[in-house]
Sequence to fold (304 residues):
Amino acid sequence: MDGQSAEAVTAYERHLRSERGRSEHTIRAYLGDLRHLLEFLEDDCGVTSLGEVRLADLRSWLARQAQSGAARSTVARRAASARGFLGWARRTGRIPADPSLRLASPSRSSRLPEVLKPAQATALLDVAAVASDDEDPMHLRNRAALELLYASGIRVGELTALDVDDVDLAAGVARVMGKGEKERTVPFGGPAREAVEAWLVRGRPQVATPASGPALLLGRRGRRADPRQVRGALHELLRHVPDAPDLGPHGLRHSAATHLLEGGADLRLVQELLGHASLATTQIYTHVSVDRLKQSYRQAHPRA
Fold:
């Protein structure tokens, strides 16, 4: 593509970061989608500038991905990335018209990943607690991380971004910075409080350095822990839970939300806890077990 297209992508990156407040993870995903699109337009369609892009080109791009076996969610996200970029390019005068206005994309699948059963979640956290008995700082950290993830349903990126002052042990709440730089307060219970306190008193001081700053969770070298470390710890501990699915941190978030709803929590409260802007997202993201629905039906319906 020409230099104008490259400049537009760079300017769009600045727009996402400074004006839209998108996370680094989201920005990387969007930019990767756009590079994929621009390469396709140039190599397969002979398009060398943004002003030449047609709706048919965009549809061919999505069709190629679907034919190659890309997940519906991936195709849908890439379509959204193209619409966002080209709409912005039109508003900023970089292209005369937006060719993506009529670009449709497959609906995202509502299929949910596997979740832990409540007993499996309890077993996982028991395994983490037993592992931390050796006072290894990383085992103490892992226990605190998993207890917080399951207790609050926060995202793993939100967890690793927490600073020490973001957690109020006395009140049992954490201040979380979510997507779009939106701050929310999430509660957690006694087991998570105990695990975090043990980490702060007996684990963190063992690895903290002057360069650690205010980060709540640290790696063995004293740097802020990253999501990969939490993910690795979760995979390792799940190996010791019989019949448990091999979930990542997002699966633990699913599990927390599911167990809250199955326990009778209000859907809007779960929405607030998870930091969803739309209730529809929460409805897709969580589900109530068929067994609970059947039980409620038998109890409430006169013809059950």
Notes: Residues 34 and 82 are 7 Å apart (CA to CA).
